[in-house]
Specification:
Layout: H1 2-23, E1 40-46, E2 53-58, E3 69-71, E4 73-75, E5 80-89, E6 96-97, H2 98-104, E7 109-115, E8 125-129, E9 141-146, E10 150-160, E11 180-191
Parallel strand pairs: 4-11
Antiparallel strand pairs: 1-2, 1-5, 2-3, 5-6, 5-9, 7-10, 8-9, 10-11
């Protein structure tokens, strides 16, 4: 009787333990969405009756090593250009299309554009968003409006994980955006 009582107690304890462990749900770890490696940025600007302008950045050895190759451009004054950004990781073969990743994860990305202000007044250009993630701007598509003749640098910054609802962010001001910089490039631009 004592032996069967101990065996019964042991079986109850064993079944309870198995039930306890089998009912615990094993959670899969959250996937880490790493920053994109971007080796190539092409910013194509088109306007009716004007030559197409292609601004480009290429850094095929990634961070460090050789300096990136930057190609600027010349824009016509008092003109509205349609802008289109294309980003690649050419360290992979075939090249990885980062633009598609940004389109798929558009709520987690936003481009910011700024023109330098120098002693000559800086670049006379403004950039407006021409695409959204359904609610907030992304910046793969833009409208670039030039003013009078000028020269300077056009900075393009891609942030990963910005707070798109923070003050000024939807207007293109990155000051309150937070997030991490995926890439930032400056193109030499002349308006003449």
């Amino acid at each position: 009787m004592f032996l069967s009582k101990n065996i019964s107690s042991f079986l109850i304890l064993l079944i309870s333990t198995l039930f306890l462990f089998s009912s615990c749900e094993k959670k899969d770890p959250e996937p880490i969405n790493e920053q994109e490696l971007i080796t190539t940025v092409t910013y194509t600007l088109t306007a009716t009756g004007k030559p197409t302008v292609v601004l480009s950045f290429k850094d095929l050895d990634g961070d460090g090593g050789n300096a990136p190759v930057l190609v600027g451009g010349t824009l016509a004054p008092n003109t509205v250009y349609s802008g289109s950004l294309n980003l690649l990781n050419e360290l992979k073969s075939p090249a990885e299309n980062i633009t598609k990743e940004i389109e798929e994860e558009n709520k987690e990305h936003q481009f910011f554009f700024s023109a330098t202000v120098g002693s000559n007044g800086g670049l006379n250009v403004s950039v407006a968003y021409d695409d959204t993630d359904g609610t907030n701007p992304v910046g793969l598509k833009t409208k670039v409006t030039t003013g009078a003749a000028s020269q300077g640098k056009l900075r393009v910054t891609l942030l990963h994980g910005p707070n798109k609802s923070a003050a000024g962010v939807s207007d293109g001001n990155s000051a309150n955006a937070g997030g991490e910089t995926d890439i930032e490039v400056e193109f030499d631009v002349t308006i003449e």
